[in-house]
Amino acid sequence: MILAKNIEALIKNHSNSLTTIDGSQLPLSHDDIEALIEDEQIMYNNEKLVEYDDNNNIVATDKVQEFIDERKPYWIDHELTKDDLEAIQQGGCASGAYMPAVTYYQATETMSNCGDAVLEYIEEQYGEIPQAPSGSSWSGIAVHYLSMAVELWASSTLNELEGM
Prior knowledge:
- By secondary structure, this protein is mainly α.
- 51% of the residues lie in helices and 10% in strands.
- It has a two-stranded parallel sheet.
- A hairpin with a 5-residue loop joins β5 and β6.
- α4 crosses α6 and α5 crosses α6.
- The chain is elongated.
- The protein starts with a strand and ends with a helix.
- The relative contact order is 0.12.
């Protein structure tokens, strides 16, 4: 897999080499470059954000982290990496993957400050706000909805990354 830079200029100018992100030059004909693009063997910084390893898994790059950071809602107040998102998706917040959503004090504080936005996000995803578990305390309700929103966001963000 080749991570290329400035692919439009490369094609437009009919270049005979490819400049990679690390600055190295690969001598390739224009036809070779177009064939690699067609086969999705070249990913470029203005079209795709990700690199893949030999097992076709996404390799986290600075661009992946930028992508995550740009999409992170303000009600998630900790930096999250791709690995964090995968842990949230796999085990949910309650697994310890995102403790601020399951710690009563922190979840209650976040919902007190950002609850409208959290519930609005959930409603946008589901079309409605699911009912909270009966018999829940206020803190339990805060944990329930904040965890749900964080898990939805993590899953959605990972799906976007995988679609690139």
